[in-house]
Each structure stands twice: as structure tokens, then as C-alpha cells.
Amino acid sequence: MFGAAGVGTGLGAGIAIVVVIILLLIAMGIVF
């Protein structure tokens, strides 16, 4: 799934997912 195809479009999507997860963790940290 994250093989050769992941290197191309997966990089942008992967970075975006990581950023979203970090923002969610920060948001949960602020809420709780």
C-alpha cells in the first residue's frame, strides 16, 4: 500500500495526515 505508489502521491498525503494527527493531539491536549 505504501510501496512505490506511496513514494509519489503518498508523500504529500502522508505529510498531510501527520500534520492533521499532530493538530488533533494538540487540540485534545488543550481540551483535556
Tell me about this structure.
- This protein has 32 residues and is mainly α.
- It has one helix at residues 4-31.
- The chain crosses the membrane at residues 12-31.
- Keywords: Membrane, Transmembrane, Transmembrane helix.
Helix content: over 70%
* Radius of gyration over C-alpha positions, nearest whole angstrom: 13 Å
Straight-line N-to-C gap: 34 Å
- List the helices and strands in order: H
- Helix/strand/pairing class, anyone? mainly alpha
Strand content: under 5%
Q: Runs with pLDDT <50, length 5+?
A: none
Largest sheet: none
Principal-axis shape: rod-shaped
Number of helices: 1
Estimate the mean pLDDT confidence: 77
Number of DSSP E strands = 0
Transmembrane segments: 12-31
Keywords: Membrane, Transmembrane, Transmembrane helix
Secondary structure blueprint with pairings:
Blueprint lengths: L3 H28 L1
Keywords:
0% strand, transmembrane, transmembrane helix, membrane, 32 residues, mainly alpha
Quick take:
88% of the residues lie in helices and 0% in strands.
